[in-house]
Amino acid sequence: MPVITFANAKGGAGKTTAALILATELASQGHRITILDADPQRWISHWHEISGRQRNIAVISEVSMASIQGHIRENRDTTDYFIIDLAGARDALVATAIGLSDHVMIPVQGCAMDARGAAQILELLKQLDEKAGIRIGHSVVLTRMNSMVTTRAMAAIKALLSARGVAVLDTPIGERTAFRDIFDCGGTLYSMDPAKVSNLDKARENARLFAGEVLGLLPSRKRSATGRGLFRTLRQAA
Ligand SMILES: Nc1ncnc2c1ncn2[C@@H]1O[C@H](COP(=O)(O)OP(=O)(O)O)[C@@H](O)[C@H]1O
Ligand SMILES: [Mg+2]
């Protein structure tokens, strides 16, 4: 039951959207998903409330430093993938969630390329590695990509990040109506009406490729358990 966390210290990077797209895509493929909504804005909890019961998806709200590890422990037997949505912050809860993760996805808006929030998360990951020897896999996913961002510009962005040793997913998340509407309509890309949502087929294909790539990044075996020492380090790093 790997833990995939979406983190970027800046708000508006596309974390919540990417987390929900991944969760609903994996659930539609038959995987059991537990989403930990650790963002005080509660967008995913709100989505769940308007969606009604969704097959293979459980959402836990009110996630705190004190409760997060317990949520994972209590639900591990009924969960194939945990997905954590974080606030746009760099605080103790963010550090703790990252420490519990198998992979950290760092969304960065492709068009704006404001990577400062991403840099703060990369710094936190570096501290965990250097101070506690905890190495957590992580990658940048470019979000809100549109046709204005050329293939060439995209290759340049990827080259820049890879020069700093940061992996970038091959699949960017496009700027799409469906990815906005899902929060208003509830449900999934598969319960939406193609007659009402433009380019829904492209959005579904985008979600499928994104989820496939994320699954390929996960370690085949679960990382070893976390101990008290880790929590002390996380608190210091935060
Ligand atoms: N791929 C996308 N396509 C269209 N709109 C998007 C996309 N990603 C994010 N947005 C919009 O951008 C805003 C911020 O996205 P959000 O996912 O809430 O970011 P964060 O969780 O990092 O604060 C929201 O209004 C959201 O609807
Ligand atoms: Mg958010």
Automatic annotation (TrEMBL):
Pfam families: VirC1
Signal peptide start-end: none
InterPro entries: DNA_Partitioning_ATPase, P-loop_NTPase, VirC1
Protein origin, superkingdom: Bacteria
PANTHER family the record matches: COBQ_COBB_MIND_PARA NUCLEOTIDE BINDING DOMAIN-CONTAINING PROTEIN, P-LOOP CONTAINING NUCLEOSIDE TRIPHOSPHATE HYDROLASE
Name of the featured protein: AAA family ATPase
